[in-house]
Automatic annotation (TrEMBL):
Domain spans labelled CHAD: 230-509
Species annotation: Kangiella spongicola
SMART domains: CYTH
Domain of life the protein comes from: Bacteria
InterPro entries the UniProt entry points to: CHAD_dom, CHAD_dom_sf, CYTH-like_dom_sf, CYTH_domain, YgiF
Domain CYTH: 2-215
SUPFAM superfamilies noted in UniProt: CYTH-like phosphatases (SSF55154)
GO molecular function, one term: inorganic triphosphate phosphatase activity
Pfam family of the protein (one): CYTH
Protein name: Adenylate cyclase
């Protein structure tokens, strides 16, 4: 089994041709002036899964590719996607005919997943196909061997009910065959700058499932980062960063497809998660190594600010109805917000296609994948950082957090709605730090302790919604005394919740 490292960028037909011509000019090595020769292939791929998509659930892709007279069976794990860079395990086998031969899979773990899928959900069957022309060449770029594939074609559904549905494909794939992975980032950077290509973290298989099998959309939540007590603090930082970036990429794919209030709120959630990460791991990752990255993310955050504010307001009005607040006077306001949101969505999606955004995402991906912060640490301190275990570091961070909570939320402190709302960002960061390190401690104790603080956050969010609703109604000349009543009740409940939460023994003690 091999580990595949590739960078994928979306393109258009006219850009593909320009990329091809440019690669002809730069593809030969300095020691070889011979013109590079492109190989064109017609590739036909059939993807397989069980009736309820058990392979999809376990992030496994299974296909048979027809390449000329060859049939190639491939099994791929989801691996890790950093920006548009894919790193994943892959098992490939030549087979005699267009028929699955799972006994040839050479990775035991993948074989177990395939066998379990069939045992639990029935036989594997064709579900969709990708058919495309691939112009392929291997070039020498900065001393590394890079395979370039220019793909143009379609994804087609299999099945009588959806056979007419299709989706166009047009993308550039760069796969590292030999050499330093940094070369992929350099070449990707050049292609984005010259031809305005965009990083693409959605695989052909993902698009095929989305097109041909209407899986219900669900809200993906940020959850526990997978750490152990022996994980180094540096490795913990990497895992947290990948978690945050993965959440961002998941909802970027969704927001590119359609306007979605939830997707915007979750994008902002990912940004806050990563901002918390920078401060929590400041003792591990030198601040000066983060300066350019934080500047990049500030610009991205600025681009998201307006549409996120609209998403908040739409969400508050929607949630207020769940509490029985129905006002005909606010119907025009809802319509205005929806229209503005649609316009801002279009503008934001256009920004996501710009070199400015894609170069920033590629820069962060490069920094993370190549561990560029180590250059700022220096060799003398690198070994010490690598040996720094996360468990004592986590306890120290959590204890510092508790002291801050006691200082601001002690039962001796009297708080107004405005005080709570102003403290809400800090409370959200508190819950995120629990996600960073929660895996290191007893799960039951952690859940019970965390729930108390999650309930406090939920009630502060209710105060925030009530404040917005009250202001919006007053702007329309409407007052509802029920809002003040619920606010007063919520303040009493929060006082009791604070006392209870602070009386509990922390799970990290």
């Amino acid at each position: 089994m091999s580990i595949e490292v590739e960078l994928k960028l979306s393109a258009s037909t006219d850009k593909i041709q320009k990329v091809k011509q440019w690669l002809v000019e730069v593809g030969a090595s300095k020691d070889n002036t011979a013109a590079i020769e492109w190989e064109q292939k017609q590739l036909h791929n059939i993807y397989y899964d069980t009736k309820n998509h058990r392979l999809r659930e376990t992030d496994i892709g299974l296909r048979i590719r027809k390449d000329g007279d060859r049939y190639i069976q491939s099994v791929k794990s989801a691996g890790r996607v950093v920006g548009g860079l894919y790193q994943r395990n892959e098992s490939e086998s030549d087979i005699a005919e267009n028929k699955l031969q799972l006994e040839l899979v050479d990775e035991p773990y993948l074989m177990i997943l395939l066998e379990e899928a069939e045992e639990e959900d029935g036989p594997l069957a064709p579900i969709f196909a990708t058919n495309f022309t691939r112009d392929q060449v291997t070039i020498d770029y900065q001393g590394a061997e890079v395979e370039v594939a220019l793909d143009q074609g379609q994804i087609n559904c299999i099945g009588d009910d959806r056979v007419a549905e299709k989706l166009e494909l047009c993308e550039v794939e760069l796969e590292l065959k030999d050499g330093d992975a940094s070369v992929l980032f350099d070449l990707g950077n050049e292609l984005i700058e010259r031809f305005e290509l965009a990083l693409d973290s959605e695989s052909k298989a993902e698009r095929g499932y989305r097109l041909c099998h209407n899986a219900p959309e669900y809200t993906k939540r940020l959850n526990l980062v997978n750490l152990t007590s022996k994980t180094s603090a540096e490795a913990a930082f990497e895992s947290v960063a990948h978690k945050g970036l993965g959440h961002w990429q998941y909802y970027i794919k969704k927001i590119k497809r359609e306007p979605s209030v939830e997707a915007v709120l979750q994008l902002n959630r990912a940004l806050m998660f990563m901002q918390t990460m920078y401060s929590v791991f400041a003792a591990v990752i030198p601040r000066h190594s983060l300066l350019d990255l934080r500047r990049d993310w500030r610009e991205i955050t600025k681009k998201l600010t307006k549409i996120n504010a609209l998403a908040d307001e739409i969400n508050w009005l929607k949630n207020s109805k769940l509490y029985g607040f129905q006002y005909s006077e606010l119907t025009p306001e809802e319509s205005r917000l929806e229209q503005e949101f649609a316009a801002e969505h279009q503008e934001f999606v256009e920004y996501l296609q710009t070199p400015s955004y894609n170069l920033k995402l590629l820069r962060f991906s490069r920094w993370l994948y190549l561990k560029k912060w180590r250059e700022a640490i220096g060799e003398s301190n690198l070994e010490k950082i690598q040996k720094k275990e996360v468990f004592p570091y986590a306890r120290k961070q959590l204890q510092h957090l508790l002291r801050d909570l006691k200082r601001h939320l002690s039962d001796k402190v009297s708080l107004t709605s405005k005080d709570y709302i102003n403290y809400l960002p800090k409370m959200s960061r508190t819950l995120d730090i629990g996600l960073f390190f929660g895996c290191l401690f007893d799960d039951r104790a952690r859940r019970e302790y965390r729930q108390s603080w999650a309930d406090i956050v939920a009630n502060i969010q209710l105060l925030e919604q009530l404040a917005y609703l009250d202001k919006t109604l007053k702007d329309k000349g409407v007052e509802d005394p029920l809002i003040a009543e619920i606010e007063a009740e919520t303040l009493i409940v929060l006082q009791e919740m604070r006392e209870e939460a602070l009386s509990k023994n922390p799970y990290w003690n």
